[in-house]
Amino acid sequence: MCPVDSTTELAGITLRNPILTCSGTYGFGEEYTAYCPLEALGGITLKGITPLPRLGNPVPRLAETPAGLLNAVGLENPGLEEFLSSYLPKVRKLPTAVIANISGFSLEDYTQMARALRRDSGLAALEVNISCPNVKHGGMHFGTDPQSAEDVIAAVKAETDLPIIAKLSPNVTDIVEMARAVQRGGADAVSLINTLLGMSIDLDRQRPVLANTFGGLSGPAIRPVAVRMVWQVYQAIDLPIIGMGGITTWQDAVEFLLAGATAVSVGTGNFVNPQAPLEILKGIQGYCEKHGIASVRELVGLAHKS
Amino acid sequence: MLTEGLVVVHERLGEEAQRLMKLVLKGPIAKTAQAGQFVAVRVQDPTLASYDPLLRRPISLAEISPESDEITLLYRVVGKGTEILARARCGDRLSIMGPLGRGFSLPEDGELWLIAGGIGIFPLYPLAQRALAKGLSVRLFWGGDNQTFLESAGLSEWQALGIPIHLSTMDGSLGQKGLVTVQVLGLLWEFNGKVENSGQTMDGKLYVATCGPHKMMQAVTELCMNSGVPVEVSLEERMGCAVGACLGCVCTLKDEAGTLIHKKVCQDGPVFRGEEVVWDVSC
Fold first, then answer.
1. Which residue of A has its CA nearest to B260?
2. Domains of chain B (ranges plus CATH)?
3. Is the model's pLDDT at A134 over the cut of 90?
4. CB of B260 within 8 Å of any CB in chain A?
5. Residue burial B8-32, b: 16+ Cβ < 10 Å; e: rest
6. Is CB count within 10 Å lower at the N or C end of chain B?
7. What pLDDT, on a 0 to 100 scale, did the predictor assign at position B281?
8. Is the bond preceding residue A224 a cis peptide, omega within 30 degrees?
């Protein structure tokens, strides 16, 4: 039998395989190289950047919950200028597709960054975070109001020739409405899902664990919610979906592909097992072989077929 | 490096109520590890795969034996993760990432004072061993709740090193009653006085490494800065990735221009120069 074809296509980018890493969990690409060769990944998504540098939230920023992790980092990042001068020259040489992630507090924040990040920057795509739950007056507004979401995606699209991936928040009443809005705005793909808003209280101190009170929940605990949203959005729009939310094993990844994700992204799972992306790829290939499937692309949305 | 550590010793350390454990793992980490570095251990009941608890547990290296390829981890059972870790048996293999972070630096010559509070003593032992092997004079100040704690947490191993030891306990059951910093202050004045009387400066004479509660390390840092003594502190913060990717465990430092900056405890630390740490921070 021929080896399984792992290549996939997403928003006009050819990826050597459908395994990506999530923004905010993989730094700027160099942190995990001792554990997972970047050559083995379909791509990585960089830590989110904002126009100006941000120190982020005070500590504690993390709280472990059953099969989950709450975080409230608050978009700590070096800012656009420092990203362009110190990080971009390095990340564009990384041996994998590199997706930048941008966050903002106003339309102008997003367009300013989009203008600076174009195809000639060496990036593969731009993920637009309209869903960070951890900053006050933050991107969340763009992620919960369909018209704002459409407007910000359209504005970014007008400023850059890179493919645009809209990263959606699960903290909405109707994820399908949001997905349709970003499709209207001109998004080339969607990332589903960002973290779920949550909190945890310290019984000894009788105070919230996180300095920010609220944080975003990630990890295996949120996977069923993410799979459900991928399923719904796959049925409603024509854009490719990057599925994420609690993917730790190859079985998790296959579930997302079957639900309709074209690619999958590993986030918190890297903290548990820094070689998870490698094991997931191997597992998907083994699954395809076992089921006589020639290409991972054939798995996408398979569970919808009657 | 991601490796599997073979459990060769896993036993209770001292009195049961102290809930201290000694875990010795065989693997390649000992060859490259420095005192003050740590490992991130996956805690999972081998008979029951589960994602609760989810994250690895960062544990400092309490002994580094490159000749036998062994590292020793001493830890206190304080919650679900360490309770599950405590069930690992000899012959089990634990997934470990490490050695991680930046450890203590070893002075070229002079005297090295180690100042520990509670189980903050653990990462200082390999530093003492290496300093003694290098021919440095080493002195230990160690404070704990009571005699039982100090004896359970390895006092006899420290005594076997043959170095001067100054103990403090909160209840006065062993050593001087009260905070360890009181003893440090007394001897620091004495040391300072001798150096000044001989018409010399403190440069290169004395170095301090400290690990323990935040407030203790803050007090030690202030004492050292007042006397012009370089001090290294080992910070603690809740960690996510342990490799500098997630920004979960930042601490606040002051750079040379006086600007507040964040550094990652897991990657830039856990050991930092005391004078650069901003101790009372709300950003």
1. A55
2. 2-100 (2.40.30.10), 111-234 (3.40.50.80), 236-283 (2.10.240.10)
3. no
4. yes
5. bebeebbeeebbbbbbbbbbebbee
6. C
7. 76
8. no
